[in-house]
Structures are given as C-alpha cells and as structure tokens.
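Listing S7. Sequence submitted for prediction.
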Amino acid sequence: MITFNPGYYDDAHALTDMMASSSPCRDSTWWFKPGAYYFDFHNTTNPLLDSGGGNVWTIDNGTLVAGTPVNGAGQVIASPPVPATIPGSCNNPIKDANAVGVQFVFGGDSQLVVKSGQAEICGTYSTTRPPVAIYGLKSGAESDTVLTGRKLTTVVSQGDFNPTATTVNLADVDTTNFATWKAKKKNDNTTVSVNGFAAPAAIPAGSVLKSAAVKVVHRHTHPTTFDGLTVTLTPTGGTPLTGTSVGRLGSPAFQTDSIPIDVSRTGSLARAIYNGTYSGARIDVRVNLSEKDDIEDIDAIQLDLTYTAPALRAGSGCVTTGPYTGSGNASRCAVVTSTGSPNNQFYVQGTTYTPIAALDLTLNNAAEQVFRFGVVTRTLWVKLTGSFSYTGPVIEVPDDSPGFVFSVYLSVYVCAAPGPCSTSGNPSLRAKVAFVDADPVTPVAGARQVSVLSYSATR
C-alpha cells in the first residue's frame, strides 16, 4: 500500500509512473488519506519536471481509495486492504453522517485519466453543504514574486580588493562606498567572495524559478579595454552555477552588469527554490583586467530573483476550451476521463463539481451509481461498452444526505368484499413514500416523518 497525504501535487508524470502497469509499485492500493488535495500539474511549464505525458495523471494499475477506509460491512478500519474492493472501500457520506473524506481539487489544465486501474473517491459529510469530492476551480491565478537587489551579509574572501572589499562597501548601490583593486600586470585577475542574498521570507516548496541574475555595479579606468566578469553562485548546500559578462569599457561612471544564472532553470538554484530549501547563496565575482595599472571599483554585488509560488489556479487551457465532442486532444480535453479499458472502475461517493470543465466516462464494469450526490459540470459524456450490464441510474441525487431517507413503493389493492383479498394483479394505486429520520446520527424507531413523494392511479 502506498499512502498519500493531503497537500499540493504538481507532478503528473511521477504519479503516472507510480501507477503504471510496469511500475515496481504495480498492483498496490493507493490510499489518499482524508483531507484536501490540490492537483495543479506543471509538467509542461517547470523544466525540473518530466514533460512526457503532459499534465495528465493516469491510473493504469492498482486500486485508488480516497477517504476514510471501511470494510465490507461499512465499518471504519485503519487502512484499506491490498487489493481494495471497489466500490465500497471508503466511507460513503451518503451512508454515514460521520464520514470524513477527501476533496480532489484540479487547477490549470490538470487532468485525471482512470485507465486500467480502479478508483473510489469519497467526500466528507456536512450538514450545510454538499460533500464535494471532485472540485474543478473556476477562479484564481498564480503570480510572479520579484525579489530585486538581495544583498550580501558577509565577505568571505576579499582577494586583491583587500582591505576595501567590506560588507558596507559592497552591499548598497551608492557610488560612494566601494571596493578597489589595481592590476599589477597585464591580464591580471582577482576574485571577491561574498555570502547572503536570502529571500525576505521563506520561499514555499513547489515554487518555480522564472529568472535569476547576479547584478554587479562596477567601473574601471582604462578607456579602451573591457573588465571581463565571471560570477559563480552556489546556493547553500548546492552546486556552483556560473555566468559571464564581457564587462564594460573604462569610464568614470559606475555601470551595471546583470549576469543571468541558471538560465535552463534546472540547476541547483532552481532545485532549491522548488524544494523550498533556498536560504541564501555564496557569490564569487572574478574580475579580469587586460592592462597593468587599470583600476577596478565594485560598488555593489546583488542578486535578483523571480519565481512563481504555488497558487489556486482556475481551470484553463484544453480543460476549459469547448466544445468538447467526446474525444480529448491537446486543444480540448476533459478534466476527468474514465476509459473503457479492462478492469476499469471509477466511483465518486460525493458531489462532482466541475462547472467550467468536461467529464468523459466510458462505463465498463460499473456495479452501482458512478456519481453519488450529483454532478455540476459544463459538459458530461457517458458512454457504454458492449459488456456494460448495470441497469440502474448512473447519477444519484439523494433526497437527504447521508442516506437516512428510506424510500419505499406501496401498492394499494381494493377489496371487492369484506375479508382478506388477493394482492396480485394490478394495484389500484402506487405511491412512493419516504421515511425520514429527524436525527440521522441517532435515529429513533417509531419517530420517523412520513412524506409522500409521488403517487399514481392505475387504469
């Protein structure tokens, strides 16, 4: 059994690989513990993630149980069995007012495909709202966080800038406090090393680096040559990343070179930001002067960072593009798809709410209602395979959750004479009657409310 905890999931490829028929974890029970799960896959936009398969999570093997596990008698158990029996492996909020389940929230163009695997998703019972088990966001957006001019806190090595390469001289762009070095020979160079550059607040895990640059404010005196710069940034606990600049022609005015770092966004800086472990970095700045007695001044060494933190994003892309015609593609797709693959089973014990997205289900082995407690969606496709034999409704809307409304059909026969009479043949009247418990948690025998839902006279 593989256990998942509530939280943010952005890697569809990792989930698909784990739940593939060729996976070392194949034939497992995938237990998603009760709580909220936000699936906002970034495989197509985050270079650190495998883009193969796009932003699609496919369940091709094993059994997924989402919510509080129960046994065959509906009693809560510590964990689901392996393999789990689908349906009936999680606590159904339609049957239990104490049911605590999950909510699967999908953002962006994230998609779920149930292929040859089996899945049962149970929501949480509430007295004030539907037990939404699958939720497609219709509002929300992510935004970039821009950190400019992050400063050093200590000088590790002054190099030949000694003794002027101090924290005071190198932290701020002020053109009055700066470090100075004079070349002792042709093609001379030296390196100053500094630490710091932490973010003002912890960068949350799952953040995506958009850009990074080391900013060096400097000048030198020789008017016809360049002061080449090589910068090396090493995140705390990470590996070095290097960038270069040809520098500037000599001038009395300070000039700024912004040198990109981790341009591929797959290096140690991007990884630290994604893991939520970025706490600062060391920056080494090497200056190359081609002429003897050329003088280099450095006014400031700073770091600029731009990243995108995880956010609740509205559905977008192919998920919201219509019309959906029953077959997904890169332009138009369903947020949840259940294919006609062998052994496929898919059940939602709760409300499915995807108001701006499509749902596409092919029913193959259904043993009961697929959508319990109703569906709100932009487009719903329900298809049947030749082996489909279930004759009941696919979508159920209970009169009163969590199922403590007991409905019966009553047939009324009129006796032609006193005494017992036959209850065979055609009844004179048929009525659908509901018995409602006033307290669904602790029902009292003999205290049920009786409501006539419908009736009809036969002719």
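Caption to Listing S7: primary sequence and predicted structure tokens for the chain studied. The mean pLDDT is 92. Helices lie at 12-18, 167-171, 268-275.
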